Every structure is written in C-alpha cells, then in structure tokens.
Amino acid sequence: MKVTIGLLGCGTVGAGVVELTRRRAGRIADMTGVRPVIKHILVRDEQKPRGVVLEGERLTTRPEDVLDDPEVRVVIETIGGIEPARTFILRALRAGKHVVTANKDLIALHGEEIFDAAEAAQAEVFFEAAVGGAIPLIRPLKGCLTSNEITDLKGIINGTTNYILSKMTETGAGFDEVLREAQELGYAESDPTSDVDGLDAARKLTILASIAFHTRVRLDEVRVHGIRSITAADVAYANDLGCVIKLLAVGRERDGALQLEVRPTLVPKAHPLASVSDAFNALFVRGDAAGDLMFFGRGAGSMPTASAVVGDLIEVMQHLRMGITETRGSNRLPKKQVHANQGPAGRYYIRLTALDRPGVFAKIAGVFGQAGVSMESVLQKRVKGEDAQIVIVTHAVSQGELAAAIQGLKDLGSVPSIDNVLPVEELEGEGPVLEDVMDDVVRTHPELS
Ligand SMILES: NC(=O)C1=CN([C@@H]2O[C@H](COP(=O)(O)OP(=O)(O)OC[C@H]3O[C@@H](n4cnc5c(N)ncnc54)[C@H](OP(=O)(O)O)[C@@H]3O)[C@@H](O)[C@H]2O)C=CC1
Ligand SMILES: N[C@@H](CC=O)C(=O)O
C-alpha cells in the first residue's frame, strides 16, 4: 500500500524532503506498512535547477494539481511565508488532507486558524521543523514534558544569526559578507531581515512559549531586538570582557505572568551557550518535575530540517495505518498575562561615545551613581579627534535604574551617542543553572569530563 504526498515548494527544505523520503521509503514502509510516494511538487519556476534529481515526482506550477488531487492524502508545505502558504494549507485541510509544515511564520501568526481548521476537518497538522531545525523540541514539549510546569525557556533558536555572530567572532569578518555565506548555505529565510532583525527567533519563541506555558502567545507580546546594531567593535569588546555575543530567546513564567524576549546578549565564554556556534541551536528548558534539560543540534539547513519534516511525515503515516487522528484545536488554552516591558534585573554592557575632555568621565560616573547603578568594569579606547569610546559593564541593575542611567547620559551633553546597550548573561541566575546541568552530566558520566 502507498500513501500519496503532495509537496509544496522545492527549495532548501523541499529538496531535502524529496531526498530523505526517497532514502528512507523502505524503512518507512517497514515501520508503517505504507510506502510514501511524492506525486506532485508545486514550485514557481519549473525550469529552475533543483537541489535533488527528480525521479517519479512531477513538478507543477498549478496549486490545484496538488490540492485537488483526491489521491493526495498528505500535503507537505515548504514554501514559507504567510501567503499563499496559508491559503494552500487551509485548502488542503478542508479537503481532509493531513499537513506537515516547516513554516514558523504561519504557525506563529495563524496557528489558531490552522489548528481550528484541522480540528473541524479531522485532519492533522505537524510542525516539528518550524523550530530548531533537526532538534526535537515541539514533540518533547507537547508530549514527554506535559506533566511539568515549565518556568524557563532560554536558548539560541536562529541559525543564521548564530552563524553570523560566530563567524564575526572567529574570523573578524564583516556582517554583510557573513550574511551572504549564510544565505548561500540555505540557512537564511528568503527575506533574511527576518533572521537579522530577530523576528524569526521571535516567531519560534511564540510557538515554543505557547506550548511550554500552555497558553497562546501573540508575536507582538515578544520584545524583539535583532543583531543589526552589533558591530565588529562590540564583538571585540565582548571578547576583551571574556564573552561572546549571542542572540538569545528567553521565555519565563513567574507568578502566572510571562516575560518573552529575543535579544543579543553578552554570554561568558564559560557558559554552555557560548560554544554553540555556526548554525547550531540550543535550548534550555526548566520544568518543575524534570528539572533542567538541554536540547542541542543543527537549527537550519536542508537535511537537518528535512529530518524533522520526514519525522512528522512518518507519524502521519503511522496514524493513517492505525486509523487515528489527533487534533487539538486552539481555543481551550487560557490566555496568560505578558509583562511586555519588564525584563529581569541583570548586568548590562553599555558602549558609548564621549567627548575626550577632562572631567567627562567623572560626570558619566556621577550619572551612574545618581541612577543607583554601580560599574563593574570599564574599558576606554581612544577613537578619533575629540571622541573616546567607553565601554561600561554594570553590576546587576533593574530596568528602571538602567533607563535612568541612559537618560542621564543623554542629558549630559558630553555623550554624543550611546552606541549599544546589551544584557550580560549570568553563569548562574534566574534561568536554568547551566553549569549545574554540565556538572550533573560529568558527575554521572565521569568518562565525559
Ligand atoms: N532553510 C532552513 O534552514 C529552514 C527553513 N525552514 C522553513 O521552511 C520553509 C522553506 O524554507 P526554504 O526551503 O529555505 O525556502 P526556499 O526559498 O529555499 O524554497 C521555497 C520554495 O517554495 C517555492 N515557492 C515559493 N513561493 C511559491 C509560490 N507562490 N507558489 C509555488 N511555489 C512557491 C519556491 O519555488 P521556486 O524554487 O520555483 O522559486 C521554492 O521551491 C520556510 O517556511 C522556512 O522558514 C524551517 C527550518 C529551517
Ligand atoms: N532562517 C532560519 C531557518 C530555520 O528555521 C534560521 O536561520 O534559523
């Protein structure tokens, strides 16, 4: 017996899905009793070279060839973006076809509509590839960990920005050059501003937080800062301070309210997240029963993402064989409060340009003192002419104290620009105590130390 599949899109991910489905067809047939056959592949341009040699699969530019073919039982969507992917998925679901998608934009923004359509049609939607590429995150959060109250999510969930920041740190290469490399490697979104401006990570955090905190988080509830403001100078200063810069996504639940943020952060080199480089992703999860967990793997790229998509496909096929359909709809989740502007207290890195004149530094120190912010370390480098570049790392401060210090600097007259303000991650702190996880691993597996 075979199950006929329609594939929407044959770019980086779609080509990987064709290749891996073909490679594993025999095993899938052994496991599920049914053989997956990709019949149609929808693309925009049939003449374009594909990253995979097509055998029996037929390329088409007509959506109806896939969506109106009654033989197609499963539609895999790898087009990306909102439209026409949304319309195609809704059409497929309404026709009773099961859907597997890698599309985080769509799940983050239109998840409710899609899950409700799936429930109404008694069809399934799977989206493991939408977050973390190859790393299983959705299934563990939805399944294995549902008995937990999850309080913390923290990690690197965008491969492109991690690739850019890693290469800037390792080779001193410029931003634009490394972004081009990330695009050539197939890591970046078709519009890479989503990656660079932190939106891709914010969409993924929206999905993860909705599942982990049993609620429905809206994208506009995530505070988002991208990496566009990070310069080679920040990377070099961070290095001088014993840190690397990473784009961290953080979700916390405290007293029933959520804090959600995506932000470039100075991470001490001894911190486990500091060594997550290239397009790798890592996520720490803290649950009340499970304790701290760490997920790590390739967060982007053709075959890593195809691994997750084909994993979903296999689950759909198992369900087809067993004659079961799992649908959940979206409306049963309570809405939780989100504190939009209350990040936690912590240390901050501040890079500013000041007039290089006697007494200016004393004035800056005075502003910090008045705002109740004490300085942990100061780096000062002469730039050019009358200006000096000063980098200050604060001791732990509240958001209010930080805002007061920044306003005081702006009012001073001798600080022409505040060039960057970034949080500094603690080795121990409110979030998962990462080195405890590592200590536990080493204690229980001394051979790994
Ligand atoms: N790249 C990655 O590492 C990862 C990507 N994802 C997600 O997977 C999805 C696909 O990403 P990726 O493969 O990188 O994207 P690509 O841009 O490489 O591929 C998109 C494919 O969709 C086709 N397509 C686009 N618009 C249309 C349309 N209007 N009608 C028909 N076909 C269309 C394109 O056709 P044509 O080739 O003819 O132009 C192309 O084959 C996105 O949702 C992305 O966020 C998730 C995890 C990782
Ligand atoms: N553009 C994304 C691709 C995977 O989701 C990323 O860089 O992480």
Write the layout of secondary structure elements.
Blueprint: E1 2-8, H1 12-23, H2 25-32, E2 35-42, E3 58-60, H3 63-67, E4 72-77, H4 85-94, E5 98-101, H5 104-121, E6 125-126, H6 138-142, E7 150-156, H7 159-171, H8 175-184, H9 193-196, H10 199-212, E8 223-224, H11 232-240, E9 243-254, E10 257-268, E11 280-287, E12 291-298, H12 302-322, E13 337-338, E14 347-355, H13 360-370, E15 375-382, E16 387-394, H14 399-411, E17 417-424, H15 434-444
Parallel strand pairs: 1-2, 1-4, 2-3, 4-5, 5-6, 8-10, 10-13
Antiparallel strand pairs: 7-9, 7-11, 9-10, 11-12, 14-16, 14-17, 15-16
Helix pairs in contact: 1-12, 4-5, 5-10, 7-8, 13-14
Bound molecules: NADPH dihydro-nicotinamide-adenine-dinucleotide phosphate and the ligand N[C@@H](CC=O)C(=O)O.
Walk me through the structure.
Residues 429-435 have low confidence and may be disordered. Helix 4 links the parallel strand 4 (72-77) and strand 5 (98-101). The radius of gyration is 24 Å and the shape is elongated. It folds into 3 domains: 2-133 and 303-322, Rossmann fold, CATH 3.40.50.720; 142-299, Dihydrodipicolinate Reductase, domain 2; 347-424, 2-Layer Sandwich (Alpha-Beta Plaits). It has 15 helices and 17 strands. The chain is of the alpha/beta class. Helix content is 37%, strand content 25%. Helix 4 runs parallel beside helix 5. The longest helix is centred in the C-terminal third of the chain and has 21 residues, at 302-322. It has helices spanning 12-23, 25-32, 63-67, 85-94, 104-121, 138-142, 159-171, 175-184, 193-196, 199-212, 232-240, 302-322, 360-370, 399-411, 434-444; strands at residues 2-8, 35-42, 58-60, 72-77, 98-101, 125-126, 150-156, 223-224, 243-254, 257-268, 280-287, 291-298, 337-338, 347-355, 375-382, 387-394, 417-424. Strands 7, 8, 9, 10, 11, 12 and 13 form a 7-stranded mixed sheet that branches. NADPH dihydro-nicotinamide-adenine-dinucleotide phosphate binds at residues 9-14, 42-45, 48, 78-80, 84, 102-104, 129, 133, 186-187, 189-190, 300-301, 305. Ligand LTNE7NMQ is lined by residues 133, 158-160, 187-189, 195, 200, 299-300.
